[in-house]
Amino acid sequence: MTDTRPAQPAPAGRFITIEGIDGAGKSSHVDAIAQRWTARGLVVVRTREPGGTALAETLRGLVLEQAMDPLTEALLVFAARRDHTEQVIRPALARGAVVLCDRYTDATFAYQGGGRGFDLAVLAQLEQWVQQGLQPDLTLWFDLPSELAAQRRGAARAPDRFEREQLAFFDAVRAGYARRAAADPQRVRRLDASGTPEQVAQGWQAVLASLGW
Ligand SMILES: Nc1ncnc2c1ncn2[C@@H]1O[C@H](COP(=O)(O)OP(=O)(O)O)[C@@H](O)[C@H]1O
Ligand SMILES: Cc1cn([C@H]2C[C@H](O)[C@@H](COP(=O)(O)OP(=O)(O)O)O2)c(=O)[nH]c1=O
């Protein structure tokens, strides 16, 4: 069935997402990325997926800890996304804020599509129904080999249901991100996340500078 509802009007703010396999280094850079705009007096709304609202955080707890089949998993991350998008992201963009979101739909194509092997055409339909044409203006993809990410994750934190997966799963997730980047290279910018923190920071700074952000 074709979804014929019109896309909602383009929002005024800026929507930036951060992506990568677990242990890629996203959390280590998000404060500095946000500061780039707060230093100029812009309002930055920092949020994450799955999560960002009370309902979506409840769904996050289920997705990260409960065993479930791939369709249930895909529906739950999109249900969380719908609530988050409508309650937080669209209103913030309409107010002119910078929305900086730790993961969004590229993670679904990477983890559920790549990692779990779930049908990409179904994910694309859900994406359309849930987002009604809304896409990030920019996605910073922290990319590095799965082995290196696993070493970085180490034993520092109790692994959730995804972090307990084997290297082959993360190789497939990474390939899922690469497909999304190839399909939309203007939006999804790959960063080499295998270097030192300083080198990685230079990478995202160069991308933002090239956009005049
Ligand atoms: N460039 C880097 N080089 C080496 N270790 C790093 C680098 N960036 C982050 N780390 C470390 O790797 C681990 C995972 O980083 P984190 O930022 O939590 O990743 P993510 O949020 O993508 O899962 C942390 O212990 C962090 O200190
Ligand atoms: C947004 C999203 C995340 N995930 C997974 C990826 C991560 O393993 C996990 C939560 O991501 P993350 O917030 O990066 O976890 P942490 O707080 O441990 O750094 O959820 C999906 O499988 N599908 C999705 O659509």
Automatic annotation (TrEMBL):
> Which residues, if any, are the signal sequence?
none
Q: Which UniProt keywords apply?
A: ATP-binding, Kinase, Nucleotide biosynthesis, Nucleotide-binding, Transferase
Binding-site residues for ATP, renumbered to this chain: 20-27
Q: Does the keyword Transferase apply?
A: yes
A single MF term (Gene Ontology): dTMP kinase activity
Reported EC number(s) for this entry are 2.7.4.9
**Which reaction is this enzyme known to catalyze?**
dTMP + ATP = dTDP + ADP
Fetch the InterPro entries from UniProt: P-loop_NTPase (IPR027417), Thymidylate_kin-like_dom (IPR039430), Thymidylate_kinase (IPR018094)
Q: Where is the Thymidylate kinase-like domain?
A: 18-201
Recorded hits in Gene3D superfamilies, A to Z, give: P-loop containing nucleotide triphosphate hydrolases
| A family per Pfam | Thymidylate_kin
Query: Top-level EC class, please?
Result: transferase
Q: Which family does it belong to?
A: Belongs to the thymidylate kinase family.
Record function comment: Phosphorylation of dTMP to form dTDP in both de novo and salvage pathways of dTTP synthesis.
Q: What is this protein called?
A: Thymidylate kinase
What's the source species for this entry? Leptothrix discophora
Q: Which gene encodes it?
A: tmk
